[in-house]
Every structure is written in structure tokens, then in C-alpha cells.
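# step 3/5: fold
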Amino acid sequence: MTKSTRPQELRGIPVDAVCGRLLPWLPRQRWFAGKGRTIRGVEVVSAVEVVAGDPAMFHLVLAVEHQAAGGHPATVDHYQLLLGIRSRRIERLDYATIGRLRGGTSDGTVLYDATHDSELTGWLLERFAAATPEAPEASGPLVFRRYGERAPRTGLAGLVVGAEQSNTSIVFGDDVIMKLFRRLTPGVNPDLELCLALADAGSRRIPQPVAWFEAEFAGETTTLGLLQDYLRTGTDGWELAKTSVRDLYADQDLHGIGTADELRAHEVGGDFAGESFRLGVATAEVHADLARTLPTQVAGEDELADLADQMSRRLDSAAGIVPELLPYTDRLRDAYRDLGRLGREGHPVPLQRIHGDFHLGQVMRTATRWVLIDFEGEPAQPLGERRAAHSPLRDVAAMLRSFDYAARHLLTERRAGGAGAPAPHLVRRAEEWAMRNRDAFCAGYAKAGQVDPRAEPVLLRAFETDKAVYEVVYESGNRPSWLPVPMSAIRRLAERTPQPH
């Protein structure tokens, strides 16, 4: 049964009752983008009953209206939800419960997030398997499409990945993984668009796409979910980097503070520089494949001037939020002036599609290679911005910032745990680890690509400064104990005069 409508009820349950349970539940979800904003109301704008019976499952599109501050108009965000409905409580699904309905014919009915119910999510695999490259599978307004000849196996249990934030990913067996895009933006999601482009280019640096599903939303074909190969042997790059740093600090603690036995980053068993080099190679290869497959352009004087102006405005806004930035703003602005000067001097700046939200948590090390994942871009940015062409050095600068975070992560946790300021020798080693891995990443990128990022100091400094300014605002509002991490980069960037290596 696949009936889509703006409904009055779902299997006899008034939609108003469903929305009433969703109202307090939504802000508690990690993928909900409206945290900190007052919700005025929740509306079910579309409902498709995809599994009938008990349990039942509906595909819902929700409109969430937020109260705007300062007399501005209210804003509306749209989300998709797989809503499970059971007539009685199932203890294993308690953590996924949205609410219970009592009284009348709905006495004891349980509403829950069905992504956590493998009894229901198998329906998705069945739809993907029923599609072929030549003929999509339609379930009402939901359209399932296959990439290539391989059909996913059905009958596999689904398990939600716990680390996901802006979306929800379900691993089926050890075969495939499906990402459900929670917040809906009309149009093709960049994660699907870039994965298909890279697969067509023959790239081995991504999990291969298997299938996806979509629907018409706000007059446009909109991506709802993406099914890809599951990297069975993959390990998160952030975890690998942290392990290297943990080994470094453990050796420092073992050898004592400030003694002649103090070890450098390349002398410990967990040295990460070789992996950083190989990651640089992988990144350059992906950038090259994207440049060959999708449109490119060269930024002119006006484009670079506009980019520099945007960065400068973001700096002004950030300094108004975080006063710690104020002593550095004039010198940081030099980085943006230098960027604008490149355009006036006719310096070519190639633009292309990039990852857009690149860091160590967006890469996986398999038994044989580095793989890049999650090409959605920064979810908070408008879709047009995420699909625009940018300098690939923006990705490079973002990864350089991620190395800095990995180096200081454990020191920050120790301080937040009451250990006080980190010992100076550990700070030195953290800085050395970051610089060693930053340099190794750039060397690998240079070996595989046409550009050595270190030969573009003006671009690299501008992008890294812009990223660090963003981090300062984020940490100030969300994790104040982490603020010293980007502030250390702010001080370094404010003092630096870019010179080619």
C-alpha cells in the first residue's frame, strides 16, 4: 500500500496527535538542525504508508516552523521520518520511541523512529533490489533507482550507525550502508551527485554507489537516501589520528617532562605521517577525477574580491560574538586582502566541485587504501553554495585544520577533565605532530596532483583563516573548553606572512 496525501489520520490515529508527540521529540535528535530555536508547530505535509499491518511504517515529510527573533518572518525546515506504529510496546525499541497514545481506539499504540526497526527497514532493501538500471521501482511518490548491475541482497538486518549527526545511516549486514538524508532541501543531494560522477570516472576512492531513492519535493526531484558499499575493513581517519597522538603522549609521559629523552613525533611507534601522505594522494586523485568529470572554471578578479569580502564579513561577525578574536582581526584581515590582490594581479585560481566538509572524520582507511565519504558538503549551507565550484585548496585547508584538532584533542580533554593546563613539552609535541602531518599531507597531494598546496600560500592562508574563524564561533557556542584549539591557530595565522615554500 503506497498512498501519499496530506493526511488527517494515520491508521486511525489523528495526525494532530502524532504532531503533538513529535513536538518535544524532534529537538532531542542529533540530526535536528533547529536546536536553540523555538518551534511554533509541526505539520505532516506528506505521508506514504509503505508497510501495512502491525507493525506499520509510514514515510513522512514534516514541516517544522520556527519562531524568528527580532520581528523577522518565521522559518520552515522540512525533514523526512520513517514512522513506525505498533499496537504494543516492544522493549528493544524503547530508545527509539517518539510517544505513546492512550485512550479510545489508540490505547497503548506506540509511535517510534522506524529506522531502528530491522523488521521494517528491510522494506527499503526490497525496493532497491526490485529496481534495475533501466527501470526504477516506484512506491507511490517514492522512486528507487539502481546504479550498475549489482542488486543488494535482501533479508539483511539493519543497524543504525551511532556516530551519525546530520543524517541517519543504516548498515545492512556487512554488505551495504544506506544514508537517510534527514533535512530535505529541494534538488539533487551533492553526496549522490558527486558519488555518481566519481563512480563514472572509475574512482576507487569512494564507497561505490549501489542505489538511491528520491521523490518530487517543492517541484524538484529531491534525493531522499543513498545506498553504497559498506567498508567492512574501514577505520575512521579521526580515530587513527587520535591513536597516533595518544601513543606520542604516552611516550612523553613515560620518558619524563622536559628531559633529553623527550621523543619527537617521528620517533614513536604510532607515527602518522606516512598515512597523511597517502591521504594527500587520495585527496588529489578525487579532486582530479571531479575536475575531469564535472564543469570547472577560473576565478577572476571580481570573484576573488567577492570571496575576500565574504570572509572579511564573517570575521567581523565572529569578532562581535567572540571578543577573544578582537586583538587579531586586523592581521587576520591581511590574509583576505592578499586573496583579493591575487585577482588584481591576474593570478589564476581554478574552481571545481570539491568535498566541501572535509576532515579526518570524512575519510576511512581500508586494508588497501584511503577512501573519502560524505560528499554532502556542510549541511547548514544552502544547496546552491554546496553545489558551487570552489578552489580545491579549501578542502586542503580544512584537512590541515583537522590535523590541528587531532593533535590537541587529548590535551583539551585532559584540561576539561580537571587536569589543568597541559605541560609545555606536550604542547610542543602536539604542535610538531600537527606540522609534520600537515606537511606530509601536502607532499602527498603534490605528488598526485598538479599543484603543491604549499606553493599557494596566499590561498591556503585565507582558507585556513576562514575555517579557523568559523571554528572559534562554533566552539564558543557549543564547546567552550575547546576554544583554545582554534585560538592557537588564530594566533599562528595572525603572525604569519605567507611566503612560497
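# step 4/5: annotate
The chain has a mean pLDDT of 90.
# step 5/5: archive (pending)
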